[in-house]
Amino acid sequence: MVIQLLLSASTAVSLAFFIRSYATIRKFKPSGVPVVGQNLPTVSVCIAARNETHALAQSLERILKNDYPKLEILVLDDSSTDDTSLIIKSFASAGVRFVAGDSLPPGWLGKNHAYQTLINEASGDLILFLDVDTFIQRDTTARLVDMMSSPQVSMVSVLPRRTDIEHTSALLGTLRYHWELLLGTRKNPPAASALWIVEKAALLKDGVGLNNYGMAVRPERHLARQLHRQGAYRYFVSSKELGVTFEKRLRSQWETAVRLYYPITGRNIVQSLLFMFVLGLFIAPFVVILLLNWDKTASQWALTLIALNLVSFWIVSRRLNAKPILIFKLIFWPLMIIQEIVLLLRSIYMHVTGSVTWKGRRVSAQPISHERLEINE
After folding, report:
1. Count of domains in the chain?
2. Which long-range contacts (CB under 8 A, 24 or more apart) does 65-70 make?
3. Are 318 and 326 in contact (CB under 8 A)?
4. Strands 357-358 and 43-49
5. What is d(CA 213, CA 371) in angstroms, rounded to the nearest whole number?
6. Does residue 292 sit in the same domain as residue 193?
7. CB–CB of 53/87 below 8 Å?
8. What is the mean pLDDT of residues 349-366?
9. Is residue 374 part of a domain?
10. Is residue 373 part of a domain?
């Protein structure tokens, strides 16, 4: 009886996963071609870097290959203790502008304050925020501008793909992007922190900028929610043509997951534990087969669920990963889910105890009233 209830619950979750995966991946498919013409908006590429010697040079080299004609590049050194500032300054002759970070004032997380500083320094009509370990190709900026203009919106964010099959961090990486994609709703759309482009005028309406989001772990999510209510926000999963990829180190992926999983699941212990239970239902069929291989009916039921889950995972992951990475993750699907459960459990504990850190700085809970930015409401 217990096994039947477990498999029934797992069936419901698997079917929901399949339906959600199919609907979501079609909804956020990018389209369009690079824009051309003389009356293009100026774009300021803004990067906040703190101890990023491992990826910064490669990121800047790819940005400098962009063919967008009206581009400025600003990189802020956020109190790095390594050679980050030297790397930034070494690209000065290529047009990269070095911005020195200020001391961190009360009520701000480091990255948010760095972004606010970059907003104040940027001169572009559009501001393209880019993580150091997120890479773009030659015509990516032009494609993003096209996405902003047809139809006209104030903000676009893009979920990057993973294509560097030679790195262990690609094979063993977390499933964070999957959950951010699938957990988005009509009222709370997903938003990617890796790359987002927004009209400067929308950001600075009433002189606000990110001032209301000083301690928000995901300021772009709150901004996207506000603009989405006006029909002024769009979200995409990157394609090969759009060319947004990332190469985040494994340890950094774990740290990001711990920082974000509790907020992603609603910053509520009950909801987070419920999501952990749902994750457990994904590996329940494997447990049934291992423990009840003598029960033909239960084993066949479990095998059907495993096949359904793998098909669903394939639907989503084929857009997020190169094929060798995807195949590896399919083979080790149960271990990937176990890793997610452990990371979610740690995220809950770290947030509840107030011990979450971001780039070596402690993250404290932000009052709900400060996680709002009203634009034309």
Report:
1. 2
2. 65/137, 65/138, 66/136, 66/138, 66/139, 66/140, 66/141, 67/34, 67/138, 67/139, 67/142, 68/40, 68/43, 68/139, 68/141, 68/142, 68/145, 69/40, 70/40, 70/41, 70/42, 70/43, 70/124
3. yes
4. unpaired
5. 6
6. no
7. yes
8. 78
9. no
10. no
> 239-284 pLDDT, tens per residue?
889 999 999 999 999 999 999 999 888 889 999 999 999 999 999 9
Task: Tell me the sheet residues that pair with 127.
Answer: 44, 198
* Ranges of H-type helices in 91-244: 110-121, 140-149, 168-171, 176-182, 200-203, 219-228
pTM: 0.88
> From start to end of 177-300, where are the E strands?
195-199, 233-237, 245-246
Domain edge (last residue) among 196, 225, 249? 249
* Domain span at 276: 2-24+258-367
Question: Position of tokens 């967008």?
Answer: 68
SS3 at position 148: helix
CA distance 237 to 230: 21
Tell whether 377 is covered by a domain. Answer: no
Tokens of 204: 């600075």
Does the bond joining 151 to the residue before it have cis omega, within 30 degrees of 0?
A: yes
pLDDT of the residue at 184:
83
Q: Taking the CB of residue 346, how many other CB atoms lie within 10 A of it?
A: 16
pLDDT above 90 (res 196) = yes
- DSSP 8-state class, residue 364: -
User: Can you tell me the distance from the alpha carbon of 300 to that of 179, in angstroms, rounded to the nearest whole number?
Assistant: 28
For residue 42, pLDDT over 90 is answered with: yes
How buried is 290 (Cβ within 10 angstroms: 0-12 exposed, 13-18 middle, 19+ buried)?
exposed
φ, ψ (nearest 5 deg) of residue 78? -90, 70
Q: Which amino acid is at 206?
A: D
Of 219, 249, 279, the domain-final residue: 249
Give residues with Cβ within 8 angstroms of 173, minimum separation 6: 162, 248, 250, 253
pLDDT > 90 in the chain, percent = 52
